[in-house]
Every structure is written in structure tokens, then in C-alpha cells.
What does this fold into?
Amino acid sequence: MRKLWPLMLLVFTSACLSDTSPNPTGTSSSGATLTVTPPTSTLVVGQSVQYAATLSSGSSSATVAWTVSNPAVATVSSTGLVTAKSAGTATLTAWVGSLTKDLAITVANGAADQVTVCDRSQSGCASSAVVQLNSTAVEVRATAFNAYGADITSSCVFQWTPLVQNLVSVQTSSDASKRDALITRVGTGSVSVIVTCGSAIGVFTVN
It folds into this structure.
């Protein structure tokens, strides 16, 4: 009789492991299903979306645990609030006991909603500078933000256009975004330089 104990213990242990293993389909062996809502899988950097997990019985009161496979792309709170951090992909998983449900998430930078242009020699963000003498210059930097206030400068290629061409010259940086520029006085008078990323516009004024 004693020889049967190791075999019985092995069978019991195997059964326990089988009952608690993850189920990525969201359906248990008993037919219960787990649904994650909303089914939205595309977010924009800076955006937060509240997710909920519901059992097939209609109950949403069961204890739910949430995880995200790539925290650099998105994070999730203990209540299912997902916040997009950077462009990329990740998997959101909801756990209720041994039942799990996965949702693929894609995070994009989104379109530029606002562009700021600042004098790099000043603290804060000064959007104008006094440059009175010809051949003197001011170094400026452009930054783009999406509708959620997230910095998406890396996805921009800035365009710099003086409203009056013969008052200043603009030399942009050699990096892909062209976010930095040297604005040099070549004529007399105030002039604004228009900086764009997509349809978003920023302005820097040289006085």
C-alpha cells in the first residue's frame, strides 16, 4: 500500500497544476469566459484608457489582476487603467483565478497638436528675442506635443519659414527632426519665423 503514495501524490500535483495554468483564450474548461472591454487596442502616447474584465455570468465583481508585457510602452494600474508611455506594442492581460484574457495593444505617437519654439539661452520658454545687429544670431529649439500633451518631437520633421525672407536667415540642425535652428539677423525690422510639424504651428519672433 505504501508504494502507491508517490503515484497518488504525483497525480494530485499534476491535477493542481493543470487547474491553475493560464488560459490565453479567455475560456475555462467549464465553459466560463472572460471578456476585456473596451476592445480598443490602439492608443496614443499620453492617453489613458480604463479597461474592465467581465465573466460570462455577467459578474464584474470578481477580483481581477492586470499585467502588461512591456511597461516601457504602456503601464496598467491595479484597477485596469492603462496609460500609453511610448510608441510600440505590448500585451495587456487580465487574470481572474486561473482564467486569463489577452489584448494586444499598439501605441502610436499621434499627430502633432502644438509646437513651441524657445530661445535656448533663456530659462523657461521665451518665444521671442531681441537681435538688433546684423550677423548676430539666436539659437532656438522646437518641441512638438500631441493632443494628450506628450512630447512627440522625435516623430517630426520641422519646417522653418521666415515670414519676411530678407530680414533673417535660418540654418537648421543636421539631425532628422531639424528641431534646432540658428536664426541670424540680415536686415532691419521685426520678423516672425513659422515652425511647423504636420498641421501644428509654432512661432518665434525676432525683434
Summary: Helices lie at 4-20.
